Amino acid sequence: MDSLRVIFIGDELVAGYGDARALGWTGRVMARTLTDPPLLPLTLAVPGETISEMAERWEREVALRTGPEIEARLVIGLGSHDLERGGTLARARLNLAN
């Protein structure tokens, strides 16, 4: 059996941008997650990305890395860029729900 793919999508916190150890949130979670068989982490993070920008790309990018025979999970790491750009929490929640 192939390993389970865990696909992380989010902003620079997920990517590890600016992290002196280059782990980011994803690397730290995976370093403490031991499974047999091991998990295959895939990070599709974009620094500075808003939820609406993420919504435009996530499905296409995840589809490129999965398929009917591949078991996968999606982890969404949200940042604060929507609010920093003048968006509201209600709009961010709506984008996430959609």
Cα separation of the termini: 33 Å
Which structural category fits the helices and strands? Answer: alpha/beta
Output mean pLDDT: 87
Poorly predicted residue ranges = none
Total helix count?
Answer: 5
Give me a quick take on this structure:
The protein is an alpha/beta fold and 98 residues long. It has helices at residues 12-15, 24-31, 51-65, 81-84, 89-97; strands at residues 5-10, 40-43, 72-77.
Give the key terms.
98 residues, alpha/beta, 5 helices, 41% helix
Protein model, in words:
This protein has 98 residues and is of the alpha/beta class. 41% of the residues lie in helices and 16% in strands. It has five helices and three strands. The chain has a three-stranded parallel beta sheet. The protein is globular, with a radius of gyration of 14 Å. The model has no long low-confidence stretch (mean pLDDT 87).
What topology does this entry show?
Layout (H helix, E strand, L loop, with lengths): L4 E6 L1 H4 L8 H8 L8 E4 L7 H15 L6 E6 L3 H4 L4 H9 L1
Parallel strand pairs: 1-2, 1-3
